[in-house]
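Tip: read the tokens left to right.
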């Protein structure tokens, strides 16, 4: 048995130093070369958003609220993934996005590890055990694979889980309002990080924690305590959403108008589910190849790799089976066992026979990729491994009976794969591909894939044997506590490093000389005309990155009507699964003429697109058509956008219905176009509707000659403003009232909670008592 010492041999600061060294080691190549960090979604999605914010703040000194460059205009303030209000996103306001991404990611990696130490130390775990948990949580394969994928919002939300649970545990045990307020504020910060699905799963886990640990596992049995815990959980949720209201309210408004309104289909909700076969990669992480060198062979979709990569190391799997003897920690241990299995159960998605019922529960039909809940498995395994090591260091090495089942199964599996690979090579690969691949394996480099599989089998077998040897020596040998803890830390460190360090790669944004030559000839606002980029040189969000008005765009949240409008223009049915409008085949389609498309980029060339529908025009006539028939009507010969505007309900303003014989003499000139402000001079001989080639969205306010005017939704997605005969100056402003209300709610919430968390009162009372005592003694 491991010799138990009386004093800790690790200084308090050594844990932080060790984690700092780990961060530097993982990010050393990137930091040394002074390059950016590679991440596919960061390059394609997050970089344009962050650059837009950075440029706007530096040039105008304000945050951007409307984005005129993508999807013909969309509310930027409602884009939660842009994380404009995330407190730790301050680096993106001080540094260029490519530099901020490196330092911000390294800081988040360090903070997540430190938060894990705080949580484990709160459980009275030893410093060695806390360090192991932090190492697993901060550098595991799932987290680092998402880093390689460039999921900035995942990084910003994932790291807060241990801190939320730290304050949540303190609240359950002490029922103090300051802990509830702290847990709520940290939850609010997590929500502002920009990944609602992670926050949703965190809330579910938190509620489960309150129920199982607070009600059942503590065996409190007090209805009064139960009521306090229930009210406290409600307060935590209320504080969390109130603190993040500055972002939550605009996003909720947008979500109600997006393709996600009312939930998504079952097919989309279960897209990228964890297949039970993929649990094989939890022991042999590269058995299906790897996305970093394009050897991932199980699916043709490389992103499926990082959504199902749950590798936390081999030795942590052993440590998770160690029994916890202390009664105070046993309940927590049981909860995290339940959390691990629950997250895997839910992550199965469509491969789970009960998921059709789960899909009907609130929230589950709002998100896709059930496998993303694996982050809770990683968190749970980090806690269980730390608690297991802590028990061993205390001399309590007893394992659950199921450990021997795992040991036999994992050992037999590794032995089978080793023998099959080295002895029956051709039949081995034939059976492997036949049983595990989703289709023919013809899309990868076979030689590179062979090296991947060979390496992962050898490495997994080696670490399995070393882990078994170390646990065996710890159980039956006479190894000292210090040596045992050191060897455990080293083995886990090396195991995780060999796998996950490959996901941290430097990246240099390539020269865009050819693209810049084209961009220089594109307009900077939609007034001269919008652009369609049907060219492999351009990505869907390049309009925002290079600030030219694009009809296309890539965003998980899109206005439903806009997507339906564009798809209808191409003769396609509505598809709620669309998150990437990256191409329009028929740019001269009848409906697209209203989007004021004037240029199309193909094969590095700019082609002019002619249209007789101007950007701004006064239309004299109106027609009311049911919403289900509007697009069909606009696609027919009955509709002339120069003479007729289509409404779905009778507007309050009076107007002529049907066509008039006399042609209307009008003129419209855009005097000023800014992202959130427009000024247009209009002259018309009789009343009509000023119709703009701008997407309608709540928050746009109009003033005609200084007086309030209606902004109507005409022609299904466009802004229409009633005007009388004569000369007018029309001004439009974008004002997000959900943002303004949310900002007040967030500031008030923080102002109320901060005094509860910080012990100002207690210190003040202590000082007053000391002064009174000194006075009496005097």
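Filled-in amino acids:
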């Amino acid at each position: 048995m491991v010799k138990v010492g009386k004093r800790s041999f690790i200084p308090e600061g050594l844990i932080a130093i060790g984690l700092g060294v780990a961060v530097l080691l993982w990010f050393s190549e990137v930091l040394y070369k002074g390059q950016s960090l590679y991440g596919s979604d960061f390059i394609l999605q997050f970089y344009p958003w962050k650059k837009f914010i950075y440029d706007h703040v530096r040039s105008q000194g304000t945050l951007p609220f409307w984005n005129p460059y993508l999807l013909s205009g969309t509310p930027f303030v409602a884009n939660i993934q842009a994380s404009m209000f995330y407190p730790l996103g301050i680096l993106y306001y001080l540094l260029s996005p490519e530099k901020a991404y490196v330092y911000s990611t390294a800081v988040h990696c360090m903070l997540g590890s430190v938060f894990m130490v705080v949580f484990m130390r709160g459980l009275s775990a030893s410093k060695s055990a806390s360090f192991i948990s932090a190492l697993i949580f901060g550098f595991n394969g799932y987290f680092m694979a998402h880093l390689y994928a460039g999921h900035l919002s995942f990084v910003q939300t994932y790291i807060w889980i241990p801190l939320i649970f730290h304050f949540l545990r303190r609240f359950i045990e002490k029922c103090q309002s300051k802990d509830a307020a702290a847990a709520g504020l940290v939850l609010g910060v997590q929500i502002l990080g920009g990944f609602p699905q992670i926050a949703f799963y965190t809330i579910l886990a938190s509620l489960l924690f309150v129920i199982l640990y607070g009600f059942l596992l503590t065996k409190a049995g007090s209805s009064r305590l139960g009521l306090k815990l229930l009210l406290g959980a409600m307060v935590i949720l209320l504080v969390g959403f109130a603190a993040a209201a500055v972002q939550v309210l605009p996003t909720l408004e947008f979500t109600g108008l997006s393709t996600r309104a009312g939930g998504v289909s079952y097919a989309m909700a279960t897209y990228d589910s964890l297949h039970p076969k993929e649990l094989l990669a939890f022991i042999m992480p590269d058995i299906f190849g790897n996305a970093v060198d394009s050897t991932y062979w199980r699916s043709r979709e490389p992103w499926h790799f990082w959504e199902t990569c749950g590798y936390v190391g081999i030795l942590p799997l052993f440590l998770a089976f160690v029994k916890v003897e202390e009664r105070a920690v046993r309940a927590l241990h049981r909860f995290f066992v339940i959390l691990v299995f629950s997250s895997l159960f839910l992550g199965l998605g469509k491969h789970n026979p009960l998921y059709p019922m789960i899909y009907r529960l609130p929230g589950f039909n709002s998100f896709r990729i059930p496998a993303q809940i694996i982050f809770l498995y990683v968190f749970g395994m980090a806690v269980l491994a730390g608690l297991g090591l802590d028990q061993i260091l205390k001399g309590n090495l007893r394992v659950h009976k199921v450990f021997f089942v795992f040991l036999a199964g994992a050992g037999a599996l590794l032995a089978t794969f080793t023998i099959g690979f080295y002895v029956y090579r051709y039949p081995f690969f034939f059976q492997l591909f036949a049983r595990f691949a989703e289709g023919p394996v013809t899309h990868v480099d076979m030689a590179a894939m062979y090296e991947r599989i060979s390496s992962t089998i050898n490495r997994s077998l080696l670490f399995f044997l070393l882990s078994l040897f170390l646990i065996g020596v710890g159980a039956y040998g006479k190894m000292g506590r210090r040596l045992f803890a050191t060897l455990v830390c080293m083995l886990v460190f090396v195991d995780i490093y060999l796998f996950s360090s490959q996901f941290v790669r430097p990246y240099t944004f390539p020269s865009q000389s050819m693209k810049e030559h084209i961009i220089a000839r594109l307009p900077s606002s939609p007034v001269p005309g919008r652009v369609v980029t049907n060219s492999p040189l351009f990505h869907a969000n390049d309009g925002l990155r290079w600030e030219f008005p694009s009809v296309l765009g890539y965003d998980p949240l899109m206005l439903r009507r806009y997507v339906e409008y564009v798809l209808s223009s191409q003769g396609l049915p509505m598809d709620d699964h669309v998150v990437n409008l990256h191409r329009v085949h028929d740019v001269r389609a009848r409906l697209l003429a209203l989007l004021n498309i004037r240029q199309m980029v193909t094969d590095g060339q700019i082609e002019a697109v002619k249209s007789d529908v101007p950007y701004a025009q006064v239309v004299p006539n109106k027609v009311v058509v049911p919403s289900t028939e509007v697009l069909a009507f606009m696609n027919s010969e009955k509709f002339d956008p120069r003479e007729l505007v289509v409404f779905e309900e009778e507007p309050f303003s009076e107007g002529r219905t049907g066509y008039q014989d006399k042609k209307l003499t009008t003129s419209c000139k855009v005097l000023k176009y800014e992202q959130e402000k427009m000024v247009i001079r209009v002259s018309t001989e009789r009343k009509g509707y000023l119709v703009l080639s701008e997407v309608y969205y709540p928050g746009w306010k109009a003033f005609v000659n200084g007086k309030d005017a209606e902004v109507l939704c005409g022609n299904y997605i466009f802004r229409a403003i009633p005007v009388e005969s004569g000369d007018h100056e029309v001004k439009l402003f974008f004002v997000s009232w959900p943002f303004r209300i949310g900002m007040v709610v967030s500031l008030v919430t923080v102002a109320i909670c901060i005094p509860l968390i910080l012990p100002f009162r207690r210190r003040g009372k202590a000082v007053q008592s000391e002064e009174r005592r000194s006075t009496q003694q005097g």
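The chain is about 50% helix and 10% strand. The chain has a mean pLDDT of 90.
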